[in-house]
Structure formats: C-alpha cells, structure tokens
Amino acid sequence: MGRPPQRTDQMSDLPTTCARCDSTGTIRVLTTSPVPGAWTMYACSTCTYSWRSTEAAYVSDPATYPAAFKVDPAAIAEMPVVPTVPPRRA
Predict the structure, then answer these.
(1) How far apart are the first and last CA of the chain?
(2) CA distances from 11 to 19, 44, 53, 75, 78 (A)
(3) Alpha-carbon gap, residue 45 to 42, rounded angstroms
(4) How far apart are CA 55 and CA 78, in angstroms?
(5) Pairing relationship of beta strands 40-44 and 27-32 according to DSSP bridges
(6) Is the entire prediction scored with pTM above 0.85?
C-alpha cells in the first residue's frame, strides 16, 4: 500500500514535486492541523492538486501516483472550464 503516513508540518519536509502534474517548486503549505504536527495540507499552484501529509504514497508520491490521473501542465490551459452554477429561481 506504499509508505507509511508522514506526520510533520516542517517546511523542510515540503514536497518538491507534485504527484499529479510533476511540476517542481510549485508546492506550498495550504494549512496545518489544529493539533500541532498531526498533518499538513499541501497544494500545487500549477494544477491545484492538494493532499495531506498523512495520505498514502499513491496519493502523494509522483512515482506511485496512478498514471491515468496524471495531468500535463501544458494541457491545463486547454482544459474546459467548469460551467458556472445558474442562479436559483425565485
């Protein structure tokens, strides 16, 4: 099932590569657990993928992330925009 969950909120443990789009240097800390050190949530600014430090390797490790769900950063600009939700009827 992969590596054991990571339990850290240290900046030195900031992932360098996004599991989904393989971009490097685009990951930031999104938020941290209210319980210090329990988990850290990361986000990729290229593809907006986010994950918690406690996720299994197939979610957070680029080498084991499912190939079927990988995203090419060059293709993101060409992806369709999700339609807006229409206003409620009175």
Answers:
(1) 50
(2) 18, 15, 12, 30, 33
(3) 10
(4) 29
(5) antiparallel
(6) no
- CA distances from residue 83 to 45, 57, 74, 78, 80 in whole angstroms, order as listed: 21, 32, 21, 15, 9
Distance CA 9, CA 76 (A): 29
Using 70 as the pLDDT threshold, list the residues of the chain that sit under it: 1-12
Q: Which two tokens stand for residue 10?
A: 């240290």
Lookup: tokens for 7: 């339990």
Dist CA 57 CA 18 (whole Å): 12
| Gap between the Cα atoms of 43 and 34, Å rounded | 18
Whether 23 and 40 have beta carbons less than 8 Å apart is answered as no
Tokens of 62: 């680029």
